[in-house]
Amino acid sequence: MSTTQDDILDRIRKHGRGKVFIPKDFLDLGSRDAADQSLSRLVKSGDILRLGRGLYQYPQMNERVGIPLGPDLDEIADALARQTGSRVVPSGAVAANRLGLSTQVPAKPVYLTDGRTRQVRIGSTTIQIRHAAPKELPVGSRTSAMVFQALRHLGQAAVDDQVVARLRRALSPKQRQELLQDARYTTDWIAAVVRQIVQEEGLAKHG
Predict the structure, then answer these.
(1) Which domain holds residue 22?
(2) Tens-digit pLDDT string for the chain (207 aa)
(3) What is the CATH number of the domain that holds 32?
């Protein structure tokens, strides 16, 4: 008969390496105490890493040197959102960098939230979670929110054919369709850029 720890490890492995977890993710498998104890034992056994308070990762490994790779910032942001029951989206500077539209890597990555402002330290990186009014947070899927934030950060004058082409390459057909659906909630000029991104492949509907 499997234990809560076995069940948690099985779920972690099914999600694959790189995923960041919080105890709340496993409350359907046992009590909060059982989840906390199981995760603590899995850290001691070396199966997972503890990134910070209530944050755990099934690490991706650098096969060449056999050490864990650093966690993905968006994975951490998603876990923090689940932890607090709030929305967390990348700031414009972070979004532009992650989409390949800017080579500037923010020294202190900033994410916006409708929850409280705080700082989270993961290894040598400090992530700033900054409160923003709900109306300032983009609506839509995680990818759409990232695109909208990046475009807003660049500004209308800086968005040229090269930016449109780069975004088109970065997004899957499904993500482009979601972007088109979510564009109804954003400003007119960003919605026009979205139509450019999807029209090239005939994904946008004429009307």
Answers:
(1) 4-68
(2) 579 999 999 999 999 999 999 999 999 999 999 999 999 999 999 999 999 989 999 988 777 777 777 888 889 999 999 999 999 999 999 999 989 998 787 778 999 999 999 999 888 888 999 999 887 888 888 899 999 999 999 999 999 999 999 999 999 999 999 999 999 989 999 999 999 999 855 544 444
(3) 1.10.10.10
Residue 206 lies in a domain: no
- Long-range pairs, 35-41, Cβ under 8 A, ≥24: 35/4, 35/8, 37/5, 38/3, 38/4, 38/5, 38/8, 38/9, 39/8, 41/5
In-domain check, residue 181: yes
Domain-located, residue 27: yes
The answer to whether 137 touches 89, Cβ cutoff 8 Å, is yes
